[in-house]
Every structure is written in structure tokens, then in C-alpha cells.
Amino acid sequence: MHNIRLKPPRLNDVGWGEPYDTHNSTGTGAAVGPQLEIERCGTLRLQLVVVAIGGTLPTLDVVVQHSPDGATWADVAAFAQKTGVSSEWKVFGPCHRFVRPKWTIAGTSPAFQFSVLGQGV
Fold first, then answer.
1. What is the CATH number of the domain that holds 111?
2. Are 118 and 84 contacting, i.e. CB atoms less than 8 angstroms apart?
3. Under a CB-based contact definition with an 8 Å cutoff, are residues 22 and 80 in contact?
4. For residue 13, what pLDDT is reported?
């Protein structure tokens, strides 16, 4: 197993999102997480970490997508829906050359502070 950087490197940063970015809208278009080129690593062990929530009945759904060319995307698999502070590890794969997270946030005035961290396996 080896660690992979899912965004430009910074001290102690091996994930998508500033250590824990706050989001209050669905991640589509520009809000979708940055793509990662994983080269030869076709399987990822990822952790979704939710450190804070807000709003009424908030829900967070995070899907990992992959692409052979960075242009056409398909879902690999999803984490379980989150409704509170929690973390979950999950193995995703096989994955194509590029991967990225996509999230859907729902509820009344919802907000989630979360990050996706990972390793290639």
C-alpha cells in the first residue's frame, strides 16, 4: 500500500478538500472535487470524514467517479449516506486513470464540513 496525494501537496494533506472544507451545495460542475490521476494504481482505499454538520435534516451522499481520459466520467461506488459527524473507510476499484469525488447535499440550509482521504492499494 502507498499513500497518494489527491490534490497539490501540502503538509499532512492526502485528500480532497482543505483538511475539512465546508460545503452547503451539491458538488456538480465547478463544485465537483478535483480529479486525481492515479496512473498504475487501479484500487483505492478511501476514507470519508465528516467533522461538522448544520441545518435541518441534512444529508450527504458522496460518490467516487472514474474516467479513462478525464473527460467522460462514471460512478465507481458510493459511501453510505451521512447525516451526522462520522467517518467511513471503503475500497473502490478497479478504477480508471482519473478519479474524483462527487457529492449531493440535501436538507434545509444544510452544511457539511468533510474531506475524502485515501491510499492506493
1. 2.60.120.1110
2. no
3. no
4. 34
